[in-house]
């Protein structure tokens, strides 16, 4: 475990997916919670914050979780696990929370008393978000997709209109928060491993999640041992992925 304060470059380079943790070194749950509090400051689509973080420190539940993570070492030796969950099904709750916040911020006024900026912000959550997220058996999503595609012949338009598209949007936003959490953990000298090789259905049942919730990843937490890092970091040559225009 590192004790000195790291620079951002050092954090980026020190962070690794750690596959095995020191069984003799504990971590502080309060500090892990603080890292989750930093995670929710991550950028996300329309600031809808369609995520939850299930912080597991119970030995009994950790043992079950490890089994549902196929008993990989990163799960079996973890001191704690944070299950990152996508909650696209809560879009109406988040929409209402935004409207309530903006109404309090701008004050209760008649429609013509709001500035153009205030009207735009309120209309965005009152009208655009329902248009974006509402769907019925996938039918409305495909109608929107076809309509936007037609409009797209004449001008630029947002094209992610189907339910499957919005699932991807929600998972991308949640992934940004998960990465922020892992960097925050590195900053305090704790190690993590994002795990997608999991039985998401059994984890949902274990955590009593509703049907609309989706597991984004499970992140194991602890203090690394040397063999927990599998060799030097490998990346394909930068020239292959960097393009200039």
Features:
2 domains, 245 residues, alpha+beta, four-stranded antiparallel beta sheet, NADH Oxidase
Structural class: alpha+beta
Average per-residue pLDDT, rounded, comes to 95
Largest sheet: 4 strands, antiparallel
Distance between the termini: 42 Å
The first-level CATH class name of the largest domain: Alpha Beta
Count helical runs. Answer: 10
The multimeric state of the shown protein is single chain
Instruction: Count structural domains.
Output: 2
User: What's the architecture of the largest domain, going by CATH?
Assistant: 3-Layer(aba) Sandwich
Order of helices and strands: HHEHHEHHHHEHEH
What overall geometry do the principal axes of the alpha carbons give? globular
CATH topology of the largest domain: NADH Oxidase
Secondary structure topology:
Layout: H1 8-14, H2 29-39, E1 51-56, H3 59-68, H4 73-76, E2 80-86, H5 91-106, H6 116-133, H7 139-151, H8 163-187, E3 191-195, H9 200-206, E4 214-222, H10 238-241
Antiparallel strand pairs: 1-2, 2-4, 3-4
Q: What's the quick description here?
A:
With 245 residues, the protein is of the alpha+beta class.
Describe this structure in words.
The structure is a single chain. With 245 residues, the protein is of the alpha+beta class. It folds into two domains: 8-89 and 166-228, NADH Oxidase (3-Layer(aba) Sandwich), CATH 3.40.109; 91-158, no CATH class. The chain is 47% helix and 11% strand. Strands 1-2-4-3 form a four-stranded antiparallel β-sheet, with helices on both faces. Helix 5 (91-106) packs antiparallel against helix 6 (116-133). The longest helix has 25 residues, at 163-187.
């Amino acid at each position: 475990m590192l004790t000195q304060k790291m620079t951002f470059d050092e954090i980026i380079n020190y962070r690794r997916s750690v596959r095995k943790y020191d069984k003799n070194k504990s971590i502080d749950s309060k500090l892990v919670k603080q890292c989750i509090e930093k995670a929710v400051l991550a950028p996300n689509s329309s600031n809808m914050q369609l995520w939850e973080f299930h912080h597991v420190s119970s030995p009994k539940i950790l043992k079950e979780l490890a089994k549902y993570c196929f008993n990989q070492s990163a799960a079996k030796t973890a001191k704690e696990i944070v299950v990152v969950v996508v909650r696209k099904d809560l879009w109406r709750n988040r929409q209402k929370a935004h409207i309530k916040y903006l109404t309090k911020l701008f004050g209760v006024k008649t429609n013509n008393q709001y500035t153009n900026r205030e009207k735009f912000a309120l209309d965005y959550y009152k009208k655009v978000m329902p248009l974006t997220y509402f769907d019925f058996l996938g039918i409305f999503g495909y109608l929107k997709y076809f309509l936007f595609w037609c409009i797209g012949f004449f001008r630029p338009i947002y094209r992610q209109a189907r339910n499957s598209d919005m699932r991807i949007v929600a998972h991308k936003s949640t992934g940004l928060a998960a990465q922020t959490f892992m960097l925050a953990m590195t900053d305090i000298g704790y190690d993590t491993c994002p795990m997608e090789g999991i039985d998401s259905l059994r984890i949902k049942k274990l955590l009593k999640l509703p049907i609309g919730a989706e597991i984004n990843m499970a992140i194991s937490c602890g203090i690394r041992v040397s063999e927990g890092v599998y060799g030097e970091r490998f990346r394909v040559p930068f020239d292959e992925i960097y393009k200039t225009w």
